[in-house]
Amino acid sequence: MPDFDELYYDAVDLLKQMVAVPSLSRDEGAVADVLENAMKRCGLFPKRHVNNVWCLSNDFSPEQPTILLNAHIDTVKVAAGWQHHPFAATQEGDAIYGLGTNDDGASVVTLLAAFRALTGVPQPYNLIFLASAEEEVSGKNGVEAVLPMLPPIDFALVGEPTAMQPAIAEKGLMVLDGEVTGVAGHAARNEGVNAIYIAMDVVNTLRHFRFEKESEMLGPVKISVTKIAGGTQHNVVPDKCEFLVDVRTTDAYTNEQTLDILRRAVPRCRLTPHSTRLNPSGISRSHPVVARAEMLGKRPFGSPTLSDQALMPFPSIKMGPGDSARSHTADEYILCTEIRQAIDEYFTLLNGIRL
Known about the structure:
Elements: H1 4-19, H2 29-41, E1 47-49, E2 52-56, E3 66-72, E4 90-92, E5 95-97, H3 101-119, E6 126-132, H4 143-146, E7 155-158, E8 167-170, E9 172-181, E10 185-186, H5 195-208, E11 222-230, E12 236-237, E13 240-249, H6 255-265, E14 270-273, E15 281-282, H7 288-295, E16 301-303, E17 316-318, E18 333-335, H8 336-350
Parallel strand pairs: 3-6, 3-7, 7-17, 8-16
Antiparallel strand pairs: 1-2, 2-6, 4-5, 5-18, 8-15, 9-13, 9-14, 10-12, 11-13
Helix pairs in contact: 1-2, 1-3, 1-8, 3-8
């Protein structure tokens, strides 16, 4: 059996090394170096693309299914109000404070520990561990750039702070540019067609719109108009009004289907997506990993927050140590007991599982 004490101490040491190196999104090179060197010291053979680092289990066989263990190494910027040094990994009792400890360093180091534990005993599957970049900005040089370089993947476990409860569905995201056109005219006379008035009707339609289907785990698609602008001066009837729409999609529809339905609902408005690549996800409760998680007393849930799952075209769950409420806050922290629990539970969840 693996030496879980050694894996735990290695994980804590590695987390402290990671925190000491600033790793803002798109600037993760130094922390990628830390991960790459740590993996080599463990006897692994990491590969790298830009700031993404990964390795495959020994005796990788194309005849077996493949499980991906993934967590991200980038962080957001330092928030105001820190009382501890964000790059010093200060330990006070059971807590380790530092930027990225909770989101997502603890998941990185515990999944690496789980990879080492699981590959230390024969498994009926292949394993890939991937520490990816640019998750916080949904960047194109993160997991999306690496997946084409990897063997086919049958299932992924994405580490994010969920208190080790499995998120079996996750909302996707589309940001839409809305544009309504009218006819310019003099405001003092009954001339023109006011684009702002048309936009008001469109916004009201979007505000109250309900899709026919709702996700069992995620509920309804959420639509929010978050920015609006129109007009040039007080005496000119505006001929254009533009606004921004935040759409949190669910596994009841693809992003493309969601966009098509909204376009038909507001025919007087042009809706243009910034992107449709950040997809919702969902996995059946009957999947072997989900079923085992429930046997272990876990409570599957639907997550409203976005992760690298949005870029994965295969079944996945999101599950990791820590609390999502601590993410992106001053004095972010992780508990050492949470790290130890995660290593043990990842191993129990996946050891010997058959997909």
